[in-house]
Write a structure and sequence with these properties.
Two copies of one chain form a homodimer. Chain A contains 20 helices and 20 strands. Chain A is of the alpha/beta class. An eight-stranded parallel barrel of chain A has the order 7-12-13-14-15-16-17-18. In chain A, strands 2-1-3-5-4-6 form a six-stranded mixed beta sheet. In chain A, strands 8-9 form a two-stranded antiparallel ribbon. In chain A, helix 9 links the parallel strand 14 and strand 15. In chain A, helix 16 crosses helix 19 and helix 19 runs antiparallel to helix 20. The longest helix of chain A has 33 residues. Chain A is globular, with a radius of gyration of 25 Å. At the A-B interface, helix 20 of A face helix 20 of B.
Chain lengths: 685, 685
């Protein structure tokens, strides 16, 4: 077995893996048994897994730091062991047990064992106290728990180095080349493994000419990155351009029915897997926001995806085909076209025609990562297709990691959305192959856009680390309690902080998504941000643009009528009961009121308040909540490392400024339109 | 005398100086007499003027092309002659006469003679027909007829190569250096001389680090440009940064009271005038939109300007100190601060304290080159100061040279604005030293931002050449009829076009400013454009920004209350009668209604229409007028050179698209706010 050292750079923030996070387990006598009696049965020996040395290095480092020791099985009070038939042979699962003072983590594969190791660390002292536990099995909800990086190789003139990145430059690329020193990538891989994330696509779905070359002459550089991810069980993927055969290969077209195009992709796949035998596959944004795609040749998305799928299939590769397809040159005068309907219309008709290794990757809502959208009906519309739900850990519409916004509660709600009503299969069930009309073989997963960059705190706002952490935990277990996940994160990240400090963090972040919603675009109306960068309030920012994001505010009413009866008919895309719940004003949840209905400012909500008064009240209260959070922070800030505290001070100053803007501009916009004063006479301009 | 050849590049459009423009005069026998009997009196011999060889080259080229000849005085039917005591020794003036079949242009200096030559060319056959003319004197209205180029040396990441430039790159700079080949500059100089423009500042008033070096190691490159302008009587100026002593000179500050700072500028001036003996002076944007200035040291604009003036005074240099100073980080909630008041507040208190060679350069209106603003009260508020009125030939807010908009009528109206009522001194009078409270010694002039770039047609839209042409003609004679100027331009530029074609051009361009106003921001409300680039409709684009440009539209009313009685008090800055005319709703001109008053949509205009119906009617009619212009164009387009016609086709397509957007978005915005339908039931969304 090769030996490795843990990638730890003291100049970079340790996130939730400081040395102290291993103090409980690191003080024990630990045995690691990587051979199994069954290994001679012709199965690959787990001791030769690329993850095995990582486990050894983790255990050695933890015991060295905290007074424990690596010992033989007989002397151990902690045992990490391979049993090939454990956990139904799911290589990522592990079993936890505690009997007769011995704590055991057992897995069928070192990957599961590594996840079990981080589980032990997370449990801390609790791993070793309390009643016996027998065979508590931990199995990831789905095999696909992925992060997409929208990293460009060089600084893009409009989108910067990382598109929708708010944490500095790329950890992979710098000035047009793959970084020489990939230590940050190794640290990142370790953070991801510790929360169960197992796949990463390293480059932007908007693929430029330089990034195309990652498939070609720059492939050895991709292999270097894959080498760094591999010891942590993280598989590398690439985003590719549909136009690659033309721009890179010099072919006359990229028609999926052109045999030369398939041959080109087959050759490309052969090249990639030769360089990276455990490569994951390709992510593709086609016929979307100006990116090339099969439409140019009169072919469908299924035609395109299946051609690519055929090229990667012999290697066991996946094609992540994004469903973010809509008309981005819409006419605002046209109230019939509804961008929210687009993904369903483009993909639902092709259900059952996608190859087995195509994963249709669908945003969690029908629009674009807004603070409040209904769950996308498209996710439930493809029973014979593998589906991944796409989220954003980076906060494009949620404050650019300048605002403290914890998203665990939002994601949890969406993942557990029951598409056929209370108790029915959820979004999480569907992506794990549990569509009630499917046969259980079409399994996708969860993908999100990463929020990580070369910032010393990884995520710009140190508190935004909590979102990266929660993304891993929730994709592993969508039913996990997001509030407990937040506490776990805080405890691991700031072990030096008192219980008052931890309580303050909880007060600051726990309901921060709801707070952000209160002071920004209300009641599911969506957008109302500045075009392009998507930061700060601009109520009419998209109202007369080609992007298909309109609220139609006038002096009487506001909102988008998406009903079948009088509107765009979007509600028709939902199964029962939601198609009726959303359709009817009486049953539509208030928080989605303006997403589904165009209503007068005087409309009375279920709370008994008028809509306009609700807008005023939530906007005044939203800012007050931010100020309460700031006060809570100020009470405990000195418990935090000085550099963390300084960065958070700076972020809170901006959050207060920006939230004040939001409050006043949204309130003023609604007031100038409605003419209805605030019932409490607070200042509106 | 050195000989020169005319700068003519057949690959670049000839604008209004095609060979045919000289056909009438070029067919004559022409004598040029550059010596004068008085020259032995110790005056510089005009024959050694740098402009003299230009005259010879012009006459030689025209006669060679059109069958005339350069002859001795006795054989001539056209005489161009120097008489040192002519035209009150104004070196730019000339006298035209026609007696006994001899046409004479006489001037005290070759510069006047060159202007006379182009005057002859413009007259064409009319120069030689009709009754005798005796000593018709042509004197420019003011000595300062200038163009500012907002050219950057390299492509600026936000503002591009030419800030507010819509005609390609800079004719001076390319990729960070002064162009090797300055032929385009020479052609440009000739175009300018032909319409009387005599000064050019070559670089952007927002001065970057690279451009600062034009004062220093890049000075020889400026000298090369000045060498090209000089033969056409055009003086070169530079824009400079207030921070130059710090950034370029390494001083600790740029406090105008620091003797080292003055010494630095004196040394800089010595350097510049040593390299360019006839250099014009410095243009400066200080304490404006983030540019550094004397405020940082607690000094006034007068302190700053006078220090620079002292440095350039020994060389006869000028300081153009821009009055475009306002708070650009304003709070939109604050209705008391009024950006329109800023220039007056910053400069009027210092009248009488500016050095003689300081020219305070004031935008024609109080805001920023909008389609309709009142004349700036600041221009009339500085009787003891030299004042230049600043205009924009480039169409920042007037369609980016994608829309056909002729500005002669707008400029003419502003230049002739009578600040003390009908028949009183006008803006043109004031800048020429005619302020009624002044002593006549404080003389400024007219400055405008150029619309020229390295585009093959010079100005993007070939019809935008008319604005450059008109700028020269109107600065020479502000009382000239802008409609005749337009005809002169069309005749010279398109000599091949029939009278139907000329009539079509007149129909397309004659009232095009008024048409543009009809379909864009109405009734002096200003802005309603996209922030930053300023193209296309965005009614709330600036409403909640820090730029101080708000219209406060609500469901009842719109407009800015700038009255003394209830508003910002801006009307107080005007002398009588305007302070009262604008103050009172009953007398305020309708076209400035929303500039001065916040009024209900139901307000009845002098036309008898409600304001809202006027908005609808003008916006429907504005687009119709564009369509009529397009139809007129299509009827005659084949008479035009194919490349010109193709470019204009393309521009009209965009103008129709954009004007349709303007019509529908403005109408919809007003409709959604007011709730008042169009009286004629036309589509509003």
């Amino acid at each position: 077995m090769t030996t490795v050292t843990l990638p730890i750079d003291p100049l970079v923030h340790a996130a939730w893996l400081p040395a102290a996070a291993f103090s409980a387990v690191g003080s024990r006598r630990i045995a690691v048994v990587l051979e199994d009696d069954l290994s001679f049965d012709g199965l690959a020996d787990p001791a030769f897994s690329p993850v095995a040395p990582t486990i050894m290095a983790e255990v050695e480092a933890a015991t060295a730091a905290h007074g424990g020791a690596l010992v033989d099985e007989a002397e151990a009070d902690v045992l990490l062991a391979i049993e090939l038939d454990c956990c139904e042979e799911n290589p990522e699962a592990f079993c936890f047990s505690r009997t007769d003072g011995l704590v055991r983590i057992v897995a069928s594969n070192p990957r599961g064992l590594l996840y079990g190791w981080f589980h032990l660390a997370r449990l801390g002292k609790d791993a070793f106290t309390g009643p016996d536990v027998e065979n508590e099995c931990h199995t990831p909800h789905t095999a696909l728990r992925m992060l997409d990086h929208w990293d460009n190789m060089d600084v893009h003139p409009v989108m910067g180095h990382v598109e929708r990145g708010y944490s500095g430059g790329s950890i992979f690329f710098d000035h047009g080349v793959v970084r020489e020193d990939l230590t940050r990538v190794a640290q990142y891989a370790r953070l991801l493994a510790s929360v169960g994330i197992n796949r990463v696509a390293i480059n932007n779905v908007n693929v430029g000419r330089l990034e195309m070359r990652l498939l070609d002459d720059l492939l050895p550089e991709v292999a270097r990155i894959a080498d760094v991810f591999r010891p942590y069980g993280v598989t590398t993927h690439l985003s590719v351009s549909w136009a690659s055969p033309v721009r890179l290969g010099g072919l006359a077209d990229s028609d999926p029915f052109n045999p030369d195009v398939l041959a080109w992709w087959q050759a490309a796949a052969n090249r990639v897997w030769a360089a990276i035998p455990d490569f994951g596959g390709f992510v593709i944004k086609a016929d979307s926001e100006g990116q090339p795609g099969p439409f140019a040749y009169g072919r469908t998305h299924a035609d395109g995806a299946n051609m690519l799928a055929k090229a990667v299939e012999p290697h066991g590769g996946l094609i992540h085909w994004r469903a973010f397809v809509y008309n981005h040159t819409q006419d605002w005068r046209d109230r019939k076209t509804d961008r929210a309907k687009a993904a369903y219309e483009h993909f639902a008709p092709y259900d059952g025609t996608f190859a087995e290794n195509v994963i249709v990757q669908i945003k969690h809502g029908p629009l674009d990562f807004q603070v409040r959208e209904p769950a996308s009906p498209t996710i439930a519309a493809l029973p014979q297709t593998s589906v991944a739900a796409e989220f954003q850990v980076t906060t494009e519409y949620l404050g650019h990691q300048k605002h403290a916004v914890y998203l665990g509660r939002m994601w949890s709600q969406l993942m557990q959305f029951p598409y056929w009503g209370e108790g029915s299969p959820t979004m999480a069930d569907i992506v794990a192959g549990g569509h009630p009309l499917g046969d259980g073989t079409r399994i996708g997963g969860f993908v999100a856009v990463s929020n990580v960059g070369d910032d010393v705190f990884w995520t710009g706002h140190p508190f935004a680390q909590a979102n990266l952490y929660a993304w891993g935990r929730l994709t592993w277990d969508p039913q996990a309690d997001p509030d407990i996940i937040l506490s776990d994160w805080a405890l691991a990240t700031f072990p030096e902080v008192s219980s008052e400090g931890a309580a303050a963090l909880d007060a600051i972040l726990g309901k921060s998504w709801e707070t952000y919603e209160m002071y920004t675009a209300p009641l599911g109306v969506c957008f109302m941000v500045y075009p392009h960068h998507h930061y700060g309030p601009n109520p009419d920012g998209y109202e007369y643009t080609p992007w298909g994001t309109y609220h139609f505010a006038d002096r009487i009413s506001i909102g988008v009528d998406r009903t079948r009866a009088t509107g765009t008919g979007y509600t028709d895309q939902y199964p029962k009961p939601w198609r009726d719940v959303y359709e009817n004003l009486a049953t539509c949840p208030d928080e989605l009121l303006l997403f589904f209905h165009h209503v007068p400012y005087t409309h009375v909500l279920k709370s008994g308040k008028t809509m306009i008064q609700h807008v005023y009240d939530t906007h005044f209260e939203g800012l007050e909540r931010v100020k309460v959070a700031v006060a809570a922070w100020q009470g405990v800030r000195d418990e935090f490392p000085a550099d963390v505290a300084a960065r958070i001070d700076e972020r809170f100053a901006e959050q207060v400024r920006s939230a004040t803007d939001w409050r006043d501009i949204i309130n003023t916009y609604f007031y100038r339109h409605s003419g209805i004063p605030d019932a409490h006479g607070r200042p509106i301009y």
